[in-house]
Amino acid sequence: MTIERVFSGVQPTGNLHLGNYLGAIVNFVKLQDTHNCIYCVVDMHAITVWQDPAELTRNIREVTAAFIAAGIDPKKHIVFNQSQVSAHAELAWVFNCVARLGWLNRMTQFKEKAGKDRENASVGLYAYPNLMAADILVYRATHVPVGEDQKQHLELARDIAQKFNNDFSESIGAHGFNDKFFPQPEPLITGPATRVMSLRDGTKKMSKSDPSDYSRINLTDDADGIAQKIRKAKTDPEPLPSEEKGLETRPEADNLVGIYAALAGKAKTDVLRDFGGGQFSGFKSALVDLAVDKLGPIGAEMKKLTQDPAYVDSVLTDGASRANVIASETMNAVKDIVGFIRAK
Ligand code: AQP
Fold first, then answer.
1. Is the overall model pTM greater than 0.85, yes or no?
2. Which DSSP symbol is given to 167?
3. Among positive and negative, which fits the CA dihedral 308, 310, 313, 314?
4. Given pLDDT bands bounded at 50, 70 and 90, which one contains residue 2?
5. Which residues in the chain are classed under CATH 3.40.50.620?
């Protein structure tokens, strides 16, 4: 039986937060037991918006440190930064020629990030989903753990895989490959916190780029910082409901209960069984204790690791060389299928 391959990435754009952790990294850790995993620090995605070069380097190391501190084993699995494996960019170019403008025009993330100043957004930001499809498909990965915000990009990756397989079906067959050369990658969007919301506004996603640091819990926040942010988190005047249905019209309460549930490894219903009917103050104190208990050791380990950049860089180079073996094989096949000439 072949073990399925998992791929996912995180952008090194600073302020790695609880949403990235609960929506993605926690699931990365779990999947190590059952899958071959490739986890990538997607630095080429990061530069789709301006990054200060020295800060980018620091952030690449910080995301790598977060992966390791959270429990990803870079020896058993693969951890690397995207720009070290050139096949990502090469396949992305082929996909730029497979994907249709109409498909990209529908991407809500581009609309949100480019905002009103669309004309001034980088071409890279627009073509971002094609690079993401290449990241996944260059490893012919079948499963992609992501937060809910990435669902639309995953659908696009599936469309690109299918169009490539159809457009080149004759050539794929002529070169002796299976007609499903690229698989249909499945998003894995699981757990009670697939969309962690801002602590200041329960209708907005917790995000690295929110100007208010109080909107998010960063993985590097210390115990006092975590406590302060949770205590100041927006709530409403009602006590917590005893059943999940009671959270439906209360986005801030729903968010905090979801965070508690995810950190405790419980369902929201179980959390409400313990805290339903109570005031937010008591619940927030319990959430502070839980968050400090779970995130404190990760933050401390991240700090230790980032003080040893030579070690972190060696993890990335080792991972990149192993990733490169798989990616080059796919890229060589793609070149043959498309009709390019390459050295053999
Ligand atoms: N709020 C969130 N809740 C759950 N999952 C989330 N993810 C991001 N935000 C949340 C998931 O984290 C993984 C890595 O995200 P990313 O760094 O590649 O990009 P992003 O989604 O653009 O992250 P941010 O924090 O939202 O950055 P900005 O502020 O630049 O927009 C992904 O699996 C993502 O789903």
1. yes
2. H
3. negative
4. low
5. 5-194+309-338
Kindly give the distance from the C-alpha atom of residue 179 to the centroid of ligand 1, in angstroms, as a whole number. Answer: 34
Question: Active site includes 344?
Answer: no
Locate CATH 1.10.240.10 in the chain: 213-305
Q: Is the CB of 5 under 6 A from ligand 1?
A: no
Judge: domain 213-305, CATH 1.10.240.10: yes
pLDDT higher than threshold 80 for residue 79: yes
92 pLDDT more than 80: yes
Q: Residue 180 catalytic?
A: no
Per residue in 279-297, pLDDT (tens digit) is 999 999 999 999 999 999 9
CA distance 48 to 331: 23
CATH superfamily, with its number, for domain 5-194+309-338: HUPs (3.40.50.620)
Tell me: the pLDDT tens digits for 138-189?
999 999 999 999 999 999 999 999 999 999 999 999 999 999 999 999 999 9
- The radius of gyration computed from the CA coordinates of the chain, to the nearest angstrom, equals 21
Does the CB atom of residue 303 touch ligand 1 within 6 A? no
Other CB atoms within a 10 A radius of the CB of residue 74 amount to 19
Active site residue 335: no
User: How distant, in Å, are the alpha carbons of 223, 227, 284 from that of 289?
Assistant: 9, 8, 9
- Is 187 a pocket residue for ligand 1 (Cβ < 6 Å)? no
Regarding the beta carbon of 195 and ligand 1, being less than 6 Å apart is answered: yes
